[in-house]
Specification:
Blueprint (H helix, E strand, L loop, with lengths): L23 H4 L46 H9 L5 E2 H7 L5 H15 L3 E8 H6 L20 H13 L7 E8 L18 H10 L7 H4 L1
Antiparallel strand pairs: 1-3, 2-3
Length: 221
């Protein structure tokens, strides 16, 4: 055999390596972490209305001595109204002392009654039903009643109150009520000067029911 006729064996192609298997963790597509739940915005609480601050009213200590008022004057009317057991509301004073305005009436309570005449002033706060019981029809607010409380039984008063509550009466609506405070040792105001002698009953009947005062022209007609 000659060298030219010898055929060299064909070189084998190199064997391709199989790629290594990817780690199992890499084979699984990475899952993005779920977003953390965001807090739901809560609506801001509605601001609570501030409780209305109640005025203490007018509270003045009496002087050592009280002085008389002249009959028929605004000062005399103030004394008569304020000395009643139920006192007088601003609405009632406004009605009796027209054309005085509220600021003038308050000045009358502080200056005329206290500084000039020596009486003290005390303030309470009452609702419409309490003012009706005091026969103060001018200061009843949302309470409605056209009868005199003395003409009704306790059951009838309770029914009237229940009817008013059902129809919108607000017992939280209160009114300043002013009372006369006498100097120590006195049981009644100093009698008015310049007019007929009047009893407390005469004054109350005139102020509450409109009865004419004894000794006046209306009383003789």
């Amino acid at each position: 055999m000659t060298a030219s006729s010898f055929t060299a064996p064909e070189a084998k192609a190199p064997r391709k390596r199989k790629p290594k298997a990817a780690p199992a963790a890499a084979a699984v597509a990475e899952v993005a972490p779920a977003p953390e739940p965001q807090p739901v915005a809560q609506p801001a609480p509605a601001p609570q209305p501030k409780a209305q601050r109640r005025s203490r009213g007018i509270n003045l200590a009496p002087k050592a001595v009280a002085k008389a008022c002249r009959y028929g004057t605004k000062q005399a009317i103030l004394v008569d109204l304020l000395f009643r057991s139920g006192g007088a509301s601003m609405a009632e004073l406004r009605e009796a002392l027209a054309p005085w305005k509220d600021i003038t009436i308050k000045s009358g309570l502080g200056w005329d009654m206290n500084h000039q005449k020596g009486y003290g002033i005390r303030t309470t706060h009452e609702n419409g039903y309490q003012r009706w019981l005091a026969t103060d029809y001018a200061g009843m607010g949302t309470f409605k009643g056209d009868s005199h409380p003395d003409d009704l039984s306790e059951a009838e008063k309770a029914k009237l109150l229940a009817d008013n509550l059902a129809n919108g009466y607000n017992p939280g609506e209160v009114f300043a009520v002013y009372h006369l405070v006498l100097p120590a040792g006195m049981t009644a105001p100093v009698p008015h000067t310049g007019g007929p002698h009047l009893t407390v009953a005469d004054k109350l009947n005139h102020l509450v029911f409109g009865d004419p005062l004894p000794g006046t022209k209306e009383a003789t007609e």
